[in-house]
Design brief:
heterodimer, A: 220 residues, alpha/beta, Rossmann fold, 8 strands, 34% helix, 23% strand, globular, B: 381 residues, Rna Polymerase Sigma Factor, Chain: A, eight-stranded mixed β-sheet, 11 helices, 14 strands, 16% strand
Chain lengths: 220, 381
């Protein structure tokens, strides 16, 4: 009999964010972007929920990278091949365009150099799927404008001094980075949450109204 | 002390076991070009081989290990086999599900053909006339055992340290016979540091006057030399932190510093105990041959590229390292993983946080057992 899944101990703050279960629906939008039968690398895969769903529904060859030992244990109990280590180490092993998709969900804003990782991800993957919380959402803007305080939101619940989100960005600023890195946008999805905790698309003024952005980009 | 029924029914134990022997004429063509034969392999098995012969797990022991992985030979054995915590009903290598096999390596001294065995050509122990063997030779000898047991393909090969080297070698030399491979606390090649420690151990043995050019069988054995070799080895199996936690600067006696050279610090007494108990069960010439085999181990050869040499593997891999292992540090496991990933292999890598150093693979650990049992259960298609 397999041992039961190890109970995860409380995570240190630094790791907590990428473990936060994405609001219902976010992963659905990402899964939809992935073609069946492809090779997928999930950077910061956590306990492997996205990879497992992609394996089951899209028959992808999944691979994950995570820094957290307990997360790796859980991935192994799901039969997922995972690499225990830093994200950039996780990429260096791969040759140019060795993978079909490199996925970064709610990860870029915790990195020291998001630009470096975006470059590496685009080198290794034919497509890069990135999702991140939009810091220009109106609720964040209001807190800064009216209260004169660092914004805290559902998606970004931390104090400024203990936040793992050291490189928060907005949809517009991220698009600037893509232009500078000469990465083309294939698809973009902007989402806001509803009262019952689902994510729904935003069509108008995404940089003001969207809490979450998903981009699929590539070098070509 | 346990009586027989206790041993048989102890929870999680395989109970009483017996070493078996398999002899084949060979001769086995060795990596050196020399030939060896006939060859006897001492081995033990636990659990039942299923009807389609698909549930075999081959355990590969380390330098000082043997075929006795789990259970006891006699009800009053003080200790069970060397990986008893891993092998048994309900354990990671669950003997209610898997057929577990372990053989003493050639060159060894626990029942398999080695330098202390009688050379049929002369009627005397081989001693230093035993041919130098490699990790690859050890693996080739084991293929005869699998053939003998009627096992075309094993579910898994698993081992730590030198057992990890043999696990890797299996996956490279016989890719079609290995479905899963779990190399633990190991390396794709011995570094200069690892060779250096082995060399000091060998020199200690060969400097012992009783070693006598290896020709000591029937006379006094080079126990001093072998004990020192073991003490050196043992230091490399622990870690600064583990030693500090276990011994600190604690003294054996409470009467302060003695300003002499008798046993004084607890760590001295521990090392001497390790050395002295080792010589009771191990042959000095086997120590020379097996450490040499490890020093020769270099999976990057012949091409010089580990990526290229691992391109043939078909097994799914679980590579495990330990944070405090400085004999085969984590970066050496990562090199293996990098080469496997480069070849689009299915590979999981986990580095377990532990203060116990290289020897951590032999110690009880929830992380280690759950990784292994889950990998065995869920990595198979």
């Amino acid at each position: 009999m397999p041992l039961t899944e190890p109970a995860a101990p409380p995570l240190p703050r630094e790791e907590a964010l990428q473990r936060t279960a994405p609001l219902k629906g976010e992963l659905e939008y990402i899964i939809e972007l992935v073609e069946p039968g492809t090779r997928v690398l999930d950077l910061g895969c956590g306990t492997g929920d996205l990879l497992k769903a992609l394996q089951e529904r899209k028959k992808v060859f999944p691979q994950g990278v995570d820094i957290d030992e307990e997360a790796i244990q859980v991935c192994v109990s799901k039969g997922l091949p995972v690499y225990h280590g830093d994200l950039d180490e996780g990429l260096a092993d791969f040759g140019d365009q060795a993978l079909d998709y490199v996925i970064l969900t709610n990860v870029i804003q915790v990195l020291h150099r998001p630009d470096f990782l975006m470059r590496e991800a685009a080198r290794v993957g034919r497509r890069v799927i990135v999702s991140f919380p939009n810091f220009a959402h109106w609720s964040a803007r209001l807190q800064l404008a009216l209260l004169g305080r660092m914004p805290r939101t559902k998606r970004l619940p931390y104090e400024w001094y203990d936040s793992p989100n050291i490189h928060l960005t907005t949809i517009r600023d991220f698009q600037d980075l893509l232009r500078r890195e000469k990465l083309g946008i294939h698809r973009s999805v902007f989402l806001r949450s509803t009262r019952d905790g689902r994510f729904v698309p935003v069509r108008l003024w995404p940089n003001l109204l969207a809490e979450q952005a998903i981009f699929m980009v590539s070098r070509d | 002390m346990l009586d027989q029924t206790d041993v048989q029914t102890a929870p999680g134990s395989v109970g009483l076991v017996q070493t078996q022997y398999f002899t084949f004429p060979g001769p086995l063509r060795l990596a050196s070009g020399k030939e060896l034969g006939p060859i006897t392999l001492a081995y033990e098995t636990y659990g039942e081989l299923n009807s389609d012969r698909s549930n075999a797990i081959l355990v590969e022991h380390a330098l000082s290990g043997d075929a006795h992985v789990a259970g006891r030979h006699h009800p009053d054995d003080r200790k069970p086999g060397w990986w008893d915590m891993m092998v048994g009903p309900g354990k990671a290598l669950d003997t209610t599900k898997y057929f577990v096999i372990c053989a003493n390596c050639i060159g060894g001294c626990m029942g398999s053909t080695g330098p202390s065995s009688i050379n049929p050509a002369t009627g005397r122990p081989y001693a230093m006339s035993f041919p130098v063997i490699t990790i690859q030779d050890m693996v080739e000898a084991e293929t005869y055992l699998l053939d003998h047991l009627g096992i075309e393909q094993v579910l898994c090969v698993i081992g730590g340290s030198m057992g990890g080297m043999r696990t890797l070698q299996w996956a490279v030399s016989h890719p079609e016979r290995v479905r899963l491979a779990i190399p633990i606390a190991t390396t794709s090649r011995h570094t200069a540091q690892a060779i250096a420690f082995d060399e000091v151990g060998r020199q200690a043995i060969m400097a012992d006057p009783n070693w006598n050019g290896g020709d000591y069988y029937g006379g006094p054995r080079p126990e001093r030399g072998l004990a020192i070799a073991r003490m050196i080895g043992h230091i490399t199996y622990l870690s600064d932190e583990a030693m500090h936690r276990k011994f600190g600067r604690n003294l054996i006696r409470d009467n302060g510093l003695e300003f002499g050279f008798e046993e004084e610090f607890q760590v001295q007494s521990y090392l001497r105990y390790q050395g002295d108990s080792f010589v009771q069960r191990f042959d000095a010439n086997s120590y020379l041959y097996i450490t040499k085999a490890m020093d020769y181990f270099d999976l990057t050869q012949p091409s010089g590229s580990l990526k290229k040499e691992l391109s043939r593997v078909r097994a799914k891999f679980l590579v495990i390292s330990f944070t405090s292992d400085w004999l085969y540090p984590t970066y050496q496991s990562r090199e293996i993983v990098t080469a496997l990933r480069h070849n689009n292999a299915y590979v999981t890598f986990a580095e377990i946080t532990t203060p116990h150093g290289h020897d951590a693979f032999l110690l009880e650990s929830r992380q280690l057992t759950s990784l292994i049992s889950n990998f065995l259960s869920y990595a198979v298609d």
